[in-house]
Amino acid sequence: MASRIPLAVPNIGEREAELVNEAVASGFVSSVGQFVSEFEEKFADYVGAKHAVACASGTAALHIAMRLADVQPGDLVAVSDFTFMASSNAASYQFADLLLVDSLAETWCMDVDSLRREIERRTAAGEKLPKAIEIVHILGQPADAHAARKLADEYGIILIEDAAEALGAMWTEGPLEGRHVGTVGHMGAFSFNGNKIMTTGGGGMFTTDDPELAAKAKHLSTQARLPDRGYLHDEIGFNYRLTNIAAALGVAQLERLDGFVATKRKIAARYADAFAGTGIQTPPNLPGQESTYWLYSVLVPASRGAGARDELQDFLAEVNIESRSLWRPLHMQPPLKDELTLDGATGEDLFARGLSLPCSTDLTDDDQDRVIERVHEWLRLNGE
Ligand SMILES: *Cc1c(COP(=O)(O)O)cnc(C)c1O
Predict the structure, then answer these.
(1) Given ligand 1 and candidates 59, 167, 242, which is best to mutate, with the most ligand atoms within 8 Å of its CB?
(2) What's the pLDDT score for residue 132?
(3) Is the pLDDT confidence value at 251 over 90?
(4) pTM as predicted
(5) Which residue, of 11, 14, 54, 96, has the fewest CB within 10 Å?
(6) Is residue 246 pLDDT above 80, yes or no?
């Protein structure tokens, strides 16, 4: 059997071991310790946010953002329909009603114009407007944060960016030139789960330019405990703080992040070259934006009909190559079946045809060539 090529595995080296050992030796293994604040400062600096608050997960960071947007039971939150379910879970924890907004086929991210039309319609009809808009930078691809911020500001809505999958992605032209994803909305959230572009084992980061929101986020993540001799809490908080050990891992990974991003782009460029002119559709690559291609994902030809995506996945698995389907859109998730949905056809198409291919940052050219050859073989067998 050929050696296994995994979809995406963490890249942990000596520097990580060194700093984690330092954290252990310091005795500060839990949520107090120098690495937590060091990680926050360096992270904020990296993405160009004024403040960063280290959290136990990306989902925790998003939930804090929902709390700080004052999302209450029955409030409406507009979320990208095509995403991993953690995006909407944060709003569901607050018992929000969801407005699931389809993606654009060109970007795989939220169709902000469609949301604008719905907000205009609701305004005219005197219907409830969203309390928050959550855009998601899908698979490392920047969503239209500029249009979303403009819309949010016009209607006094809070904009939250789910940048869990897109650390390192930027705009290189236009009104957001030089900006990182996760820094355009009122609040942003990143994830350091095991398969994300950098990892802390499990962890996340809340970002904002607003010092008051940053202070509140930190307060909420530490059980809303006040500095008092006794145990005094001024609201219901969470145990959402990142540990010092995890933060040590984060500091080491952050030092290597530019290298990871460059490698992801190189892997993407090799796949794009290999699939050019075939029936395989490669991910968005738009001028003025630099995606990180977190999980490199392609669409199988529509002409092959339903089931082709699974066929290709099985065909790869036969030779020990791991791949994974893109997400079932939120409007198709059983707990969300009654939520409001704006269209949804693009998300359904991405789900039906989308497959993520191996793209670990330590993927060798030889292994990537094995993946490419196998996909080409599948295309030939199917007369593409
Ligand atoms: C991974 C992910 C999250 C959640 O991050 P965790 O750290 O796993 O809680 C949120 N949104 C999206 C789009 C993700 O991919």
Answers:
(1) 59
(2) 98
(3) yes
(4) 0.97
(5) 14
(6) yes
By C-alpha distance, which of 164, 137, 169 is closest to 260? 169
Q: Hey, what domains does the chain have and what are their CATH numbers? A: 14-255 (3.40.640.10), 257-381 (3.90.1150.10)
> What is the atom index within ligand 1 of the atom nearest the CA of 138?
13
Whether residue 384 has pLDDT greater than 80? no
Q: How close is the Cα of 371 to the center of ligand 1, in Å?
A: 26
Chain segment 92-130, per-residue pLDDT in tens: 999 999 999 999 999 999 999 999 999 999 999 999 999
Nearest by Cα to 77 from 55, 58, 101: 101
What is the signed CA dihedral for 72, 78, 83, 88, rounded to 10 degrees?
10
Amino acid at 320: N
CA of 58 to the centre of ligand 1 (A): 5
- The pLDDT, as a whole number, for residue 303 is 86
**What distance in angstroms lies between residue 133's CA and the mean position of ligand 1's atoms?**
17
Each residue of 328-359: b (16+ CB within 10 Å) or e?
ebbbbeeebeebebbebebbbbbbbbbbbbbb
User: Separation of 165 CA from ligand 1 center, angstroms?
Assistant: 7
